[in-house]
Amino acid sequence: MYIRHRMSEEFPIDKGHLLVSDPWLKDPHFHRTVILLTEHEAECSIGFIQNKPLTLTVGDVLEDFPSPELPLFLGGPVETDTLHYLHLFGEKVGGQPLQGGLSWGGQFEVIRLLATNGELHPLNIRFFIGYSGWGPHQLQSEFSAGAWIGGPEFDLKNWQTPPADLWRTTLRNMGADFISIANSPEDPTLN
User: Fold this and answer.
1) Domains along the sequence of the chain with CATH
2) How far is Cα 152 from Cα 19, in angstroms, rounded to an integer?
């Protein structure tokens, strides 16, 4: 058995940190997901699911984009008619700085120029359809109910890990207390 409600100074719920779903979370939008929080305030929290790639590419949703082969991810169930991006280009593109050199948003004209120059690849930018969002104090309430586990800060290794392995790998990398969670079966009746 593991402790469901886990938050510490090492793994707080904060902007730039990962949020890992509890293995028994029933919501199909968030089953075994890893979310990067880009905003966490009393009024709202916003993040992007890191391990739900789509079969679409950027070229499928942006006409004449210079790097049409870049993959798209489902950022979450909110406003799935919007496109967002996280990048490692810092002040060159701008946007909201997070952790580990990562930024959210910024000047899309610069992104297009970088794509034209062949400078975009899956390890320096990630595009998302929609986002994950919570209203006032909602995320803290879900955390207290055991739906989420506070995770580490973003690290480029997160994007180097295959999306299908990210949930388990993130938990295993969080230390011995999380190994049993990472090893929990998809179907609890098989335990």
Assistant:
1) 20-183 (3.40.1740.10)
2) 8
